[in-house]
Amino acid sequence: MSETIEKVKCLIIGSGPAGYTAAIYAARANMKPVLYQGSQPGGQLTTTNEVENFPGYPEGITGPEMMIELQKQAERFETDVRDGWITKVDFSGDIHKVWVNDTKEIHCNTVIISTGASAKYLGLDSEQKYLKLGGGVSACAVCDGFFYRNQEVVIVGAGDSACEEAHYLSKLCKKVTMLVRRDEFRASKIMAARVKNTENIEILYNTETEEVLGDGQVVTGVRVFNNQTNEKHDIPATGFFVAIGHKPNTDIFKDYLNLDETGYIINKPGTAKTNVEGVFVSGDAADHVYRQAVTAAGTGCMAALDAERYLAAKDATFEVSTSTYN
Ligand code: NDP
């Protein structure tokens, strides 16, 4: 029995603001988009509490609520939103092949990549152990801070994310110790000033993590060392938060697309085009500079418009349909 291969005019991978905005535009252009949500439906914004800088929400909106609204808007124009994880692609031909959960094969005229980025970890064995156990290691204060109310926590990082998360935690926790590996912050002055001026945040400069301590089930503290003096000490803590940046989710594309040294997809300047015709990119998968919901949405719009123009130019040569065949 031969396997059924689905044919799709416009496949969108990812369900953050970039993916849903691409879907809204593609659906309204009658491209019958199919959107795969990936492992974190709604993307990184679902881990954010209040979004106050997305135009059109004068009172702010929570990240999860905003993503539900975006999904509804995409579905209103008949975007086919599906659960599933794209595990493999083959962009070597005119028709782009993708595999869902390693099994289902789809042939696409256009693909819009909106796979976003994922949080980085230090990579220490002890960190990974308690992360996997769900025992007190987290890369998202907004998601997990609630569990550490009135407790003492440690956060690593000195960028804007770390400052934002440390400040968020300071409102819930008894004490937040912030580990900064240099003698200064990377964060903007205003964000750094906010943490410096928060009473229950203690900042330890030139300080790195040696080990996340625990009782085998949950975190009980963090062993740190001063990288100037090599002095070590233990900080009691029930939560260990890591806020040291993100990695773009682009590994499955690396054999076909041009990526920069950190893995961000390189788009043609001023467009959402990649080096492969018919494959477009939007959102944080290609953006290491702005990384905002509104810029992701903007590039989602660009990707759909670029895809539409590409299809219009190619229409004569493509057998465009959303039917299936054996
Ligand atoms: P950044 O790359 O800006 O900062 C990462 C931080 O983590 C740096 O301070 C870095 O230290 C530290 N770090 C990296 N690896 C390690 C390690 N192994 N051990 C200890 N510390 C480490 O990432 P962010 O996620 O903070 O920000 C990304 C972008 O998003 C930035 O452009 C930022 O401005 C933006 N942003 C804006 C916000 C806002 O305006 N509201 C909120 C959040 C992010 P070092 O400095 O020594 O390299």
TrEMBL record:
Q: Which domain of life is it from?
A: Bacteria
What's the catalysed reaction? [thioredoxin]-dithiol + NADP(+) = [thioredoxin]-disulfide + NADPH + H(+)
* UniProt keyword Iron, yes or no: no
Protein EC = 1.8.1.9
Q: Does the keyword Oxidoreductase apply?
A: yes
Q: What are the GO MF terms of this UniProt record?
A: thioredoxin-disulfide reductase (NADPH) activity
Per its UniProt record, the required cofactor names are: FAD
Q: Which GO terms describe its biological process?
A: removal of superoxide radicals
Q: Which UniProt keywords apply?
A: FAD, Flavoprotein, Oxidoreductase, Redox-active center
- Residues forming the FAD/NAD(P)-binding domain are 9-300
* GO CC entries: cytoplasm
Question: How far does the signal peptide extend, from start to end residue?
Answer: none
Q: What class of enzyme is it?
A: oxidoreductase
Question: To which protein family does this belong?
Answer: Belongs to the class-II pyridine nucleotide-disulfide oxidoreductase family.
What is known about its subunit structure? Homodimer.
Name of the protein described by the UniProt record: Thioredoxin reductase
Annotated source species: Hanstruepera neustonica
Give the taxonomic lineage as stored in the record: Bacteria, Pseudomonadati, Bacteroidota, Flavobacteriia, Flavobacteriales
Q: Which gene encodes it?
A: trxB
